[in-house]
Amino acid sequence: MGHFSISDLESISGIKAHTIRMWEQRYGILQPVRTQTNIRTYCDDDLRRLLNVATLCGQGHRISKVAQLSEQELASAVISCCQDPHDYARQIQALLAATLEMNEPQLGKLLNGAIRQLGFEQAVLHVAYPFLQRVGLLWQTGSINPAQEHLVTNLIRQKIVVGIDQLPPVPPREARRWVLFLPEGELHELALLFMNYALRAREQHVLYLGQNLPISELERVCQAYEPHVVGTVLTAVPERSQVQAYINELAQRCPGVMLVLYGPLLNCQKLTLPEKAIIPGLMTDFLALIDELHQQKDK
């Protein structure tokens, strides 16, 4: 069970602390307990209810009416109200609330609704990706548990894999060829999977090698497949002090090939990049890069 201060609730929900206190005192939407020093603390149920209440109030519902709803009525109302495809904040709040109660069916409905309304790529960029960032912060601060984080990660992974499977095949000799992989020991795959989707959607051919690939294997891959580009994501591997050495070895094993390097380990580092190596800072930068490369090919 989480133990949250009112400032925690404010930062997670976006609702000001004085509004939370007013809703608590006037409408009884939360049931905090007090410490021996008379400080309010809130539990997971309080946070989940606040997120649902905030979602409905943000849609114009009156707090006096929302406060009277049961938990089941709240959840149903939240799904019904999250129909504006461009109201990303409300959709993310609803997803967070469903995550806290490990409500997999509701998570699936909300994600499917965003995909249906926005299209797959925009739903990932504007809803799923910011939602994952919020989940990551909550996990780091102990506000959600590993099971909740795994539920979200695996559900979004499933959606991306389904999206990839629905794309038409691209002949390898008629398109720019990419190799995508994660370094040995690296298991954080969602960004690489989305890159795979984005490339295939733009009629690029991808040899997707996935997680945990020893760097020594890339020489044979490049000889057999002759890629134009090799891309990877560095999230937790290698050690930050070894990133430069890893990039150098990657360039040595894939001579003459463009390298696209993405991920948090590349941020805030003074790196010497090999020729033809690029670091897109954001996923939108990566999408702009592949659009530019696609246009160059068509000229």
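^ that was protein a. below is b, sequence first then the tokens
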Amino acid sequence: MRKEKLYINGQWQEAASGETFDVLNPADGSLVGKMASAGREEVLQAITAAEQALEEWASLPAQVRANYMKKWHQLLLEKAEKIARTLTMEQGKPLAEALGEVKAAAAFVEWYAEEGKRVYGETIPASSSRKRILVLKQPVGITAAITPWNFPASMVTRKISPAIAAGCPVILKPAEQTPFCAVEIIQLAHEAGIPKGVISLLTGPPEVIGDTLLEDPRIRKVTFTGSTAVGKKLMKKSADTVKQVSLELGGHAPYLVFEDADLDKAVKELIGSKIRNCGQICIATNRLYVQESVEKELVQKLKTAFSGIKMGSGFEEDIQMGPLIDEKAYQKVQEHVEDALSKGATIVTGGEGFHRGEHEKAGYYYKPTILVDVTADMNIMKEETFGPVVPIQRFQSEEEALRLANDSHYGLASYVFTESLSRGLRVSEKLEYGIVGLNDGGPATVQAPFGGIKESGLGREGGHFGIESFLEIKYLSIGIE
């Protein structure tokens, strides 16, 4: 059993209270280890350390910051398999998926090491020959980064990397369910020589840590990935000190399959979109809309594909889908299925789960499930399920498909499958989502902007867009003789 500490001002330390919390393996509920639980005192220590580091770190040439990050990137690649095993142990996803995520985490560090060197200003023509106008971009300041449990490696570096590349010290608060791979990632940042105070890691009660960070005026930026409900609370609490806020929140992705689609491709891409990480992905397909003339064929192909999915612990051979993160997640999936059945839906395959181990809070699995005869009044068609369930609703026309797809408070990701270029572009432009996968079920990548509209969030992460929210614009007007 491992026991890990907090990382503040370049040092690993216990919580002053001595308190810890348990981290469970979602595959069977076994105890992975104990993690130090920070209180208000440690949060203030981390903020002070970041404040002391800010001026020097922000003043460094971008190339120097990049050199630190390149060392960090190299260490992440060297230790990728070790971090992946930790990730699978505390999060549950298959080891191959975990390794892919760690490599993606390393890619964010590499990308922003380079992107930080391309933060350009502007010279603007003045209205007078006796003036010059310059526009500078400078770091926004100390940043609080709050990351989720479903991608506990890549979300850490997707937030920290652009921030420190821009010159902003970061205080990281990873999810309580998955702190250990964050610990290993930050340990490698330490070994890369990133100066003390530039990165801190705090774990513990979200309310205590979050409220302390949000109340302190020295924190100038909050970047958060998680539920829409929590994101709204962060926005409200950030208003008192007018912090800049980036939010990547919940999704309810529609997956539109038209009658001219390549159905085999649509099914293959859907498997990746829905089964990966047991459906616990913010851009996972939540609602499948299929044109009436091809519904039966698509359902049969999907049923065949789902029946071959191998479930189990992420360390088992050839596993394609691991457990749900905990009992609460399992209950939500079960409630959505039961609600749909009570309102007339029919199960094609799946519709049940099982439990492993002796711990009541973890060890929960749910079989890949297909529901048909689905209607818009079912909860599963309105709320994010975060599990391996595909509800299918038919449509007749393009206009109907768009109406159904856009009928949501969420606007993160959406998918369109058609072999018609004209239809694909037409529908993609009308979908009210920040991300559209056109014949592509896996659109997320380091070089592209990731984020949503409506109640799915504010701002973008990834690509050159991702560093912009960590920069302030300063206008310099110069009078000359």
